[in-house]
Amino acid sequence: MSDIKQAESPFLLPEEVDAISRLSGITRWRREKLGLFPKRLKLSARKIAYDRAAVLEWSKDPEGWAARNSGAA
After folding, report:
1. What is the spatial distance between Cα 51 and Cα 41, in angstroms, rounded to a whole number?
2. pTM of whole model > 0.85?
3. Which residue in 33, 36, 27, 25 sits closest to 58, CA to CA?
4. DSSP 8-state symbol, 25
5. Which of 45, 44, 64 is nearest to 54 (CA)?
6. Mean pLDDT of 4-8
């Protein structure tokens, strides 16, 4: 038996983001384009993920996150 703990990934898969955000994939995509949701990261040709810290920060205050991370202002 090993007592080594696995480090928490810095990424969230879309299924995990679904559970946190309660937004559909298309709604997330639209909000990403508007700067209202953290942008997806392309890990490979067929795999995307999201930055865990950004999604968790967004989940605490979506409007505040968008205001802090928008290019306008």
Report:
1. 7
2. no
3. 36
4. H
5. 64
6. 68
